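Pilot study result, target chain (331 residues):
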Amino acid sequence: MTTADARLQRLLLAFPLMADEPRLSLEALAQRVGTDAATLSNDFACLDRDDAPAGFVDAIQLFVGESSVSMRSAHFKRPMRLTRPEVAALELGLGMLQQELPADERHLVNSVRIRLHDSAVRPVDTVLDRRQGGAVPYRATPTDLAVEPARDGELHALAVLQYAVETAQVVELTYQRADADDASVRRVHPYALVRANANIYLVAHCEQALTLRVFRLDRVAAASPVEERFTRPADFTVESVLRQGHVFVQEAPPPEWLVVRYSATVAPWIAERESGVRQPDGSLVVEYPLADEAWAVRHVLQYGPDAVIVGPERVRVQLQQLLHRLLDQLA
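Predicted structure:
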């Protein structure tokens, strides 16, 4: 199946070639892109449909002749500038990275954030600005978007675990499980640090459980290196602990599954990255191993009315209760 990402990649490869060599035949162009003529022709046809890649619908004219293909576009003739939402997204990522770096290295990211502002589309003054005496002068300083700093203990634990992963050093971990009243101490062999679901996870062999376990960094109360080394299994890969982009480690089949139905509106995009069952009405039903009920509620909330929890019932109730509390606060 052709994915939107693969189609966009082919188009981005084809456009510069067509602009530089307007006499290329469709077959020759497809060969240069790494596909066949029929696939590339279908990619071009998609530009006239509603599922066309954003930003290319009105800016590109394609001419497919008997012996050549060419294009006309003003889109590539003007300097590219980042929009304000794009700057906000990049600045958020850079701000998070800046908080994770040692203090003496943060200035490097800060300089990138300043250059990022210089490349952005300048905000225009509004009617209100003019009535108040003019728009506020634009300042190329990374202060538009603040990032909540990580706790000092969490940064220390991250540094210890990163070094332990690189040097295969045993670590004594003080960990607070979500379903436990008190933190427990255990010795672990750190294999990898993985970012997923807006969190950082440690994948490690736990000497207490004698198996592979996943630990969320924000639940690590303390991490202390032990003067002892371990040998990482030769067959270990980070991919082995990821399921559809989510960190999940469990030797036995999960005892319970979260079942979510996505509406026909978002189903095509969900199907790009999740395996599910398409329904006659165009919706998509996806199953996830239920290891964290709080994550399940957050995940469904981000899609608004386009995602519905089919089961388990208690997770549906948790979501309903949360929505009722939010409505009460707004009342």
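One observation from the pilot: The two ends are 47 Å apart (CA to CA). A full batch analysis is planned for the follow-on phase.
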